[in-house]
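Sequence in, structure out. First:
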Amino acid sequence: MRILILGGTGNIGPFHVRAALSRGHEVSVFTRGKRPAHFSAEVEMLTGDLNGNFDSIRNRDWDAVVDVATFGPKWVRALGEALGDRVGHYTLISTDSVYENPIGNTGGTTEEHELVEYTGTEDPYSITSFREVDEYRALKVLCERESQRQFPGRTLIARPTFLVGPGTGELTYWPVRMERGGEILVAGDPLAPVQMIDVRDMAEWIIPMVERREHGVFNLAGPALPMGFAEMLGAIRGTTASPVSLVWTSQEWLLQQGVPPVWSSPLMWVREGGIPGLMRVRSDKAIARGLKFRPLSVTAADALSWYKSQPPDRQGLLLQGVHGIGSLEESMALERKLLNEWHARDARVR
């Protein structure tokens, strides 16, 4: 197949490029002009952008388009107008955060659950940068609807949960920190549900779906069986020989110390990204279509190896992008300060 990939040079795009090449497809990447050094010569690079510069693709046709980066409906509409019927299949990478407060759905959130609605005063088709998570969620819903209008009957919508693995920052902190060993501060409920998907598992599922020209909406949230927070940490702990001691604290205490609740940080606890039910998504439909999940220990080990291969300045940016602290050393200094305060609190309570 001839496949055009949008966002192919970002964090997750290269995995879709590799997955497509590994299955013998011809791959073109639509980009602002940057060619990653690791891209093979067989990848065709087409220069342009979704804000209106479609000259390099306007008179071309592809069997499929895989869009891994779009969050604004204006771009989906512009792409549809530029390519029209010259695309046989369109895939949009959306997010499982599009669901409206699924916490009450104790059986798990399926693809039929109610979606968030855009409530802003600004024309959503004029937005090119989002200001908050809720706006991003609503814009993704509008992208989904626009894609189905532009490519009716040939749109595949993937709603992944947190993306992890080499090239991502969300999970990488934990194997990096555990390799340092010692006491590690962990907060929250050890049994709180955790869901994620290795970006490679997503890409290796999407390309065969494109080949079969499957359409519809699919949740992509692993693992196949429920996993708790403590179980997740145990799997990651097994990737390093460093002696580690996990010190569990309460969410309330960390909030009192002024530590913000975030998904992945040196002080991570599971709060479902501020979106109730985000870690209770069902992927039965995608699993029935061949979605598989590699062991978390493999994902963590590969993420650690990838992190070590990056230059020092890149390593700092990766962790800073996740938890807002300038370096691992700074985060560990804060962690040690909090651990000392927690131990002193325990001593006072006793």
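Second:
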Amino acid sequence: MSAPRYKRLLVKLSGEALMGQREYGVDPQTVQALAMEIAEVHATGVELALVIGGGNIFRGLSASAAGMERTSADHIGMLATVMNALAVQSALEYEGVATRVQTAIPMQSLAEPYIRRRAIRHLEKGRVVIFAGGTGNPYFTTDTAATLRAAEIDADAIFKATKVAGVYDKDPAIHSDAVLYDSISYKEVLNRGLKVMDSTAIAMCMDNNLPLVVFDMTVPGNLQRACRGEVIGTTVQMEA
């Protein structure tokens, strides 16, 4: 693999990326395959942090819409992200990658509490840091948590690894003529209401000039190609 373009990255993974062909939960083979891809990138010297959603286990917003009190629902969703973080940690360590899980909600018997300076020190020592528990607050998504952590650790970019090729002008699952963007600005994403990340996360990216690369993680090798700076998926940045 040629030299990576980025020194420090935050990779945002959906909880659904861990399901494989299951309808919910964690598929061990899928998680191990994902860990192998991450390990290959880590071996090139890229400092990697991860944020993983919890939608494969529990969706706070959906539960709230169904009648559950929103704060309680979001707290359950945060716990789901911790479960996913521990699963990915186990898979990465099986691949020989040193890791640390840090949680926004203290749970010392399972993981470290989130401490920014400690997280940066882990990255500098070559450990993959997995941030779990969202921001620790209800009403904020894991997209916002990923953007916040990326800004705090001074990441060069955020990679949003999804199941679609990138950002389209409309939903490609509904519209056969949907157009894939190679590059688009933060303002255009917000103005057009494109479902890339929630508006809070996009605004935070814009305020901190954090490039966001959206690509299909289900294609083997895409993570490595994105790290090399190849045109993969869509880049959201200050000016398209």
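Remark: DSSP finds eight helices and nine strands in the chain.
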